[in-house]
Design brief:
With 218 residues, this protein is α+β, with helices and mostly antiparallel strands. The protein folds into two domains: 85 residues, Ubiquitin-like (UB roll) (Roll), CATH 3.10.20.810; 96 residues, Helix Hairpins, CATH 1.10.287. The chain has six helices and six strands. A hairpin with a 4-residue loop joins strand 3 and strand 4. The radius of gyration is 20 Å and the shape is elongated.
Length: 218
């Protein structure tokens, strides 16, 4: 059992596997709510997922265990697992690393319907992609990466940079109020969010922790 292991769910023995010994699993981004992919699990891969805290599926085409991201780096860290009311489907809330969940290199396996505003996810996927990029840099620590240099310098450096960016946002906001346009404010705000995410990562909290704090405020 690893440090990422999940408690064995009370429903584990209630899973209704099909005649082939499989159950469908939907992976959903725990931060944004995006539905990322659907794959299959058998009893062994479900138990391995619980024991490791990383998504492990069963490939029907290869008849083999499939640890998500084992070769691509697009791993899925499990935040929670849920069984549906009929016991024949699993929902996994995950943190998606890398480029995304799909083998095509896209964030999600689902194609958007063009022109359907109901499927416009707004800014949440962008924030999720930024968080995943920061997380990936923290895990891999690629040489020459600015994010790597901030993370390795620790919370003091990350905090200092965040403070500098906050001042620049205020200046840009005053410039916008003076009629100089809002493009500068948008750019500086993007820098602020990036450095905030790096600071969060450096002390071990995630956007989910912040969302939970907001939810508690009603």
């Amino acid at each position: 059992m690893t440090s990422n292991a999940l408690p064995v769910p009370a429903w584990r023995e209630q899973v209704r596997f099909d005649d082939a010994g499989l159950v469908p699993c939907i992976a959903q981004d725990a931060t944004t709510g995006e539905v990322l992919m659907m794959a299959w699990m058998n009893g062994a891969t479900l138990d391995e997922t619980i024991a490791t805290g990383r998504m492990v599926y069963w490939s029907r085409s290869r008849s083999a265990r499939w640890a998500k991201g084992e070769t691509s780096g697009a791993t899925q860290t499990v935040r929670s697992l849920h069984l549906d009311c009929d016991g024949d489907a699993v929902l996994a809330l995950v943190e998606q690393a890398g480029a995304g969940a799909c083998h095509r290199g896209t964030r999600t396996c689902w194609d958007p319907a063009e022109g359907d505003p109901a499927l416009d996810a707004g800014p949440r996927p962008v924030f999720a992609a930024l968080w995943n990029r920061v997380t990936d840099r923290d895990v891999r620590r690629p040489e020459g990466s600015y994010t790597t240099s901030l993370l390795e310098a620790g919370v003091d450096r990350a905090g200092k940079k965040l403070g500098e960016e906050a001042v620049e946002v205020v200046i840009a906001a005053k410039n916008a109020a003076a009629g100089q346009g809002t493009a500068e404010l948008a750019e500086e705000s993007a820098d602020l969010l990036y450095h905030l995410f790096v600071l969060w990562r450096s002390v071990g909290i995630s956007p989910n922790d912040v969302l939970a704090a907001l939810a508690r405020r009603g």
